[in-house]
Design a protein that fits this description.
Number of strands: 26
Distance between the termini: 40 Å
Strand content: 25-35%
Radius of gyration: 26 Å
Helix content: 25-40%
Number of domains: 3
Strand order of the largest sheet: 3-10-11-19-16-15-14-12-13
Largest sheet: 9 strands, mixed
Number of helices: 15
Length: about 500
RNA sequence: GCGGCCGUCGUCUAGCCUGGAAGGACGCUGGCCUUCCGAGCCAGCGGUCCCGGGUUCAAAUCCCGGCGGCCGCACCA
């Protein structure tokens, strides 16, 4: 892929990484040591602030808007949890190693490739070994015998306590929600449909992590699990509010997204229920408010081969970037896989009363990749103006709200500016800066997306006014000092 | 995990082929100057040349191994 587009692609990705490294958004973990494993990243000060604001927007647009309950679960969970969830068995790849050149292969894929026989991933290893032997399948690169048949599980195993009992770092945050469901339902006086949300870390031992924040071994998810009565997924009054909202749906068989209202999507049977249409609308609206242009968002239906082992209906919210379409949110109808599995394995009742009906709730999830979202927001906000970088984040996502600057670095302008900074710093994420020319400082803050700068000049000393300078236009406005806080508050307001 | 390319101050890079004092630009810090968009001047800061081993009088440079990055394949539960 050496086309012009291909080159532009890598340049744009590189621009984001360069900005991130240079200005402290994020950096490789364990960076100063040579044995730093791939797939682990540290967030720096600006990255933390951006992520915090992104999550605050998520709380506002999804959790609060919909009256969801938020929890914060443990990252290490018992082996039994993953036995019941299916991850211990299904979260694995069957692999084998060449006895001579040591290359590692996916056995199921290799058999399929060589013989055309479809091999279920979960087929017994002995069975796979038998097929390989019978069909005389050998190492594709050197022709030697295959050996060391094994399951590679992508969960990180940890030893708990002195005995080192097996437990696992969660590969998805939602298992806490399923395990805790009954207690939350009871103690919070729950009623179906009930949505429980969680923001936190997950861990997957990726074979080959790559592309910065896009595929990590330790990463943030913001997940929402909606528990509902499958017989009543169309009795959903809240959905009326979004019936005219246009989804960008790409059902199986389409090669580009269709603009269809929720109503039309339901009428045409593209989406299976009002409940699902409603949540697809909420998540798409959320990304529009996070600053991703609508025409770069799509909700793509997964065909059966692509779906996770637990999914019965699956839509991915994807965003188009210079690297292609990136999956940011998995919207899965998980059916009763989870509560059913935990009910059976734990012996704990998971059925609840919905009216007079006794029902094992089904689950629709919105599983968001936070770090990937941060990358996409950075990339889509990155603009160039007169050869200079301007990060055009929505103001309410900007890591720094306001920079307070004396026009020149000289008393009494500096003292005056410091007073203003002190008055703003508790309410806002503010910085004070007197280093370098005023133009240099504007550029410095444009580059990290600060939406407004407050500048103290000679006139400020006479009449207690300041100028407010806007990142996106470089225009300035003079306002009275006692209106500054209110003005910034208004400018940073959510849409 | 395989294959190709690659790894030098915070960032970008010169130097590597042909072994011989790690240099520049931007940035950052302090000062002077400066009343609005990367100004100027002065003085500074900043590098385990990815790591380990080998060859050599001498290694950023050559060789081997590892780690990491990008791209392609595979994978993405």
């Amino acid at each position: 892929m050496e086309s012009e587009a291909g080159e532009a692609v890598s340049r744009r990705f590189d621009d984001v990484i360069r900005l991130a490294l240079e200005r402290g958004f994020f950096m490789p973990a364990s960076e100063i040591y040579g044995d730093a494993p791939a797939g682990f990243w540290d967030y720096g000060p600006l990255g933390v602030a951006l992520r915090r604001k992104f999550i605050e927007l998520w709380r506002r647009e999804l959790v609060k808007r919909d009256g969801m309950l938020e929890i914060d679960g443990a990252q290490i969970l018992s082996k039994s949890v993953f036995k019941a969830s299916g991850h211990l068995e299904s979260f694995v790849d069957p692999i084998a190693r060449c006895s001579r050149c040591k290359a590692i292969y996916r056995v199921d894929k290799l058999i399929e490739e060589k013989t055309g026989i479809h091999v279920p991933e979960r087929l017994d290893l002995g069975e796979m070994r038998r097929i390989v032997k019978e069909r005389g399948i050998r190492c594709p690169s050197c022709g030697a015998k295959l050996a060391d048949f094994a399951h590679f599980n992508m969960m990180f195993r940890v030893g708990v306590g002195a005995a080192g009992s097996d437990a696992y770092l969660r590969p998805e945050t939602c298992q806490n929600i399923f395990v805790d469901f009954m207690r939350i339902y009871k103690t919070m006086r729950g009623k179906l449909p009930l949505a429980i949300a969680q923001f936190g870390k997950s861990f997957r031992n990726e074979i080959s992590p790559r592309q910065g924040l896009l595929r990590m071994r330790e990463f943030y998810q913001a997940e929402i699990e909606v528990f509902f009565n499958p017989n009543r997924a169309n009795e959903f009054p809240k959905a009326e509010a979004v019936m005219d909202y246009a989804l960008r749906l790409q059902p199986v068989g389409e090669d580009k997204p269709l603009e269809v209202s929720c109503r039309e999507a339901l009428d045409r049977g593209l989406v299976s229920s009002k409940l699902i249409a409603y949540y697809l609308a909420l998540i798409q609206q959320f990304y529009e408010k996070a600053g991703i242009p609508r025409n770069r968002i799509r909700l793509r239906e997964l065909d059966p081969d692509e779906k996770a082992f637990y999914a019965v209906e699956a839509w991915d919210l994807e965003v188009e970037t210079s690297l292609g379409w990136i999956e940011l949110v998995a919207c899965n109808n998980r059916g009763d896989h989870d509560l059913g599995g935990h009910q059976k394995a734990s012996g704990h009742e998971m059925e609840v009363l919905d009216g007079s009906e006794r029902v094992l709730p089904h689950v629709f999830e919105l599983s968001m990749g936070v770090d990937r979202s941060i990358y996409c927001i950075l990339e889509s906000s990155l603009a160039t103006s007169n050869g200079k970088t301007v990060l055009k984040l929505p103001p309410y996502l900007a890591p720094i709200d306001v920079a307070v600057l004396p026009l020149i670095s000289k008393e009494p302008l500096t003292s005056k500016a410091r007073e203003i900074y002190d008055a703003l710093k508790l309410e806002f994420d503010a910085v004070y800066d007197e280093s370098g020319s005023i133009g240099r400082r504007y550029v410095r803050y444009d580059e990290v997306g600060v939406p407004v700068c407050v500048t103290v000049d000679h006139q400020s000393l006479e009449d207690d006014s300041v100028t407010v300078r806007f990142r996106d236009t470089a225009h300035q406005l003079r306002i009275d000092l006692d209106e500054v806080a209110g003005f910034i508050r208004g400018y940073l307001a959510y849409p």
